[in-house]
Amino acid sequence: MDRGLYVAMTGAKQIMLAQAVNNHNIANLNTVGFRADSVSLYSQPIYGPGFPTRVNSVAGDSGTDFSSGVMQSTGRPLDVAVNGKGYIAVQGTDGKEAYTRAGDLRITADGNVTTASGLPVLTESGPLNVPPSTTVTVGSDGTVSVLPLGLTPLGVSPTDRIKLVNPPEKDLQKGNDGLLRLKSGGTADVDPNVTLTSGMLESSNVNAAQSLLNMIQLQRLYELQVKSMNSTDQNEQTAQQLMSNAS
Amino acid sequence: MNLALYSAKTGLDAQNTQMAIIANNLANANTTGFKAQRAAFQDLVYQNVRQVGAQSTQNTEYSTGLTLGTGVRIVATESNYAQGSSTNTSGPLDLAITGQGFFQITMPDGSLAYTRDGSFTLDNQGNVVTASGYPVQPAITVPVGTQSVTVGADGTVTAVSATNKSTSIGQIQLANFINDQGLQNIGNNLVVESVASGSPQTGTPGLNGLGTVQQGSLESSNVNTVTELVNMIECQRAYEMNSKAITASDQMLEYLTTNLS
Fold first, then answer.
1. B225-259 and B3-27 are packed helices; what angle lies between their axes, rounded to 10 degrees?
2. Residue B203 carries which DSSP code?
3. Residues of B whose CB is below 8 A from A118
């Protein structure tokens, strides 16, 4: 067994995985509030009998890009965008608190406020619920005011406040459902400094040009690995020919 | 299955659907009472290839894991129920709703549908019907020999006879829903109630948060063509990039098969 062949094969396999992460980012170019994933390849020497001369490459998450996306004006009162750092607290499908930047909210028939994917938006004391009303307005600190049916504009009253948090980015981790959660598993405290803008949505923060460049680079790297697999193969062939000529 | 190829493929799918929605909005830029729709994108589930924090040996743990995203999907189409601008038509049975609410329409099967399109006409019996011929609920019949019909802001319909005598012939009622996003579009400018929309709350226009009725006007489509065109450009470029990603992944595999054979 030629060991060099396997080093190149591992490289090619891991680069294909990195390409998958990059393609996932490109697929989410238009996903509201999406945070780009990044992947990096790191070296892992192979220890065993003899010297550790071979170094395999291993793909690993190098975290999530937490920079802000572009703000798009939509004019819809229930579209909210988080200004600067911060997250909106929602209830994940597992019932636990999770965080998102996607603020395209809606109201269900029961008056629950949810995200576009149907996850309930949380206040400090549980899911946010609004009474039947003419208008629902979200203030910059997350306060939700409603004008209940049948009342004049004098009847506008605040109902509750959306839970806005701003935990340190190093404590956050993207779950398998794309929502952010604390690595420790706990819940983050309300941060009064996080503000919202109503009538706006934050677009995906994927940098299209950067992703295209990454894609080309990964493609060429992959070809290098294949080329070196090919060379190993040719070496073996030459060796085989020499040996069969000698005999 | 190659994940890199399939992630990009989901991107193509989603952008394609987005383009269909944009095209439908643009096609309805002149449809009375039309409400623009938009797509809600969501990232698909992530594959956990290597769990972060798992033990790499008895005493050490992996400081990074490897999670692979699997692409994108469209979870919902959201209608924007913002008010469209009023256009003056002077037609006596052209009604626009200023504010919330829907006109109630009786469908041929007897069920109720709802619309913001108030371009009503009369049928051969004198009933007030939509452009498709479906009667308004509660039914309003204009008597023979009526000279003019007046609809008040509160929906009261008054007919003036040839002898200049005015009679009230009915009252237009509006319906409202707690979650108008949840209404199901069925075409013909109509929407129907769904589990998500909640049940309709009917009432007199102008009361209980319902809008008022404006005679001689129609609510035009609320599609903002500039926004749609910008969205279209964005969508087209995103589509191209996803297609490029597929090509690149394909070339990688092609390179592999041609060089290692």
1. 160
2. E
3. 75
Evaluated on CA atoms B223, B227, B229, B234, the torsion sign reads: negative
Please give the interface size between A and B, counted as residue pairs whose CB atoms are below 8 Å apart: 200
Task: With H, G, I as helix, E, B as strand and everything else as coil, classify residue B193.
Answer: coil
Report DSSP letters for A47-98, one per residue.
-SSS----EEEEEEEEEE------EEE---TTBEEEESS-EEEEE-TTSSEE
Secondary structure class of A31 (helix, strand, coil): coil
Paired tokens of B28: 């309805």
Q: What secondary structure does DSSP assign to B37-92, as a single string? A: EEEEEEEPPEEEEE-TT-BSSSS-B-SS-EEEE--EEEEEEEE--PPPPEEE---T
Report the complex ipTM. Answer: 0.71
Say how far apart CA A3 and CA A228 lie, in whole Å: 12
| Residue B157 amino acid letter | V
Interval B108-149: pLDDT, tens? 999 999 999 999 999 999 999 998 899 998 999 999 888 999
Number of helices (H), then strands (E), in chain B: 2, 20
Q: How many C-beta neighbours within 10 Å does residue B239 have?
A: 20
Q: Provide the shortest C-alpha distance from residue A97 to chain B (in Å).
A: 18
What span, in angstroms and rounded, lies between the C-alpha atoms of B69 and A92? 18
- Per CB-CB distance under 8 Å, the chain A contacts of B52 are 61, 173
Greater confidence (A153 vs B169) lies with B169
Asked whether residue A1 carries a pLDDT value surpassing 60, the answer given is no
Q: Which of A26, A109, A174 sits opposite B182 (nearest CB)?
A: A109
Q: The tokens 């935990």 sit on which residue?
A: A167
When pLDDT is averaged across residues A114-121 and rounded to a whole number, the result is 90
Could you tell me if B220 and B94 are in contact, meaning their C-beta atoms sit under 8 angstroms apart? no
Cβ partners under 8 Å of residue A6, min gap 6: none
Residue identified by tokens 């023979």 is B144
The pLDDT value recorded for residue B22 is 96
Q: Please report the sign of the dihedral spanned by the C-alpha atoms of residue B164, residue B167, residue B169, residue B172.
A: positive
Neighbouring residues of A27: CB distance < 8 A, sequence distance ≥ 6:
B7, B8, B10, B11, B14, B69, B71, B72, B242, B245
| Cβ–Cβ contact B54 with A under 8 A | no
Is the distance from CB of A180 to CB of A159 less than 8 angstroms?
no
Q: Which of residues 133-172 of B touch A (CB under 8 A)?
A: none
The CA distance from B60 to the nearest CA of chain A, in Å, is: 15
**Are A17 and B3 in contact (CB < 8 Å)?**
yes
Q: How far is B143 from chain A (nearest CA, A)?
A: 34
Question: Which three-class secondary structure state does DSSP give residue B157?
Answer: strand
Rounded to 10 deg, the angle between the B3-27 and A3-27 helix axes is 10
pTM: 0.80
Question: Do A15 and A218 contact (CB within 8 A), yes or no?
Answer: yes
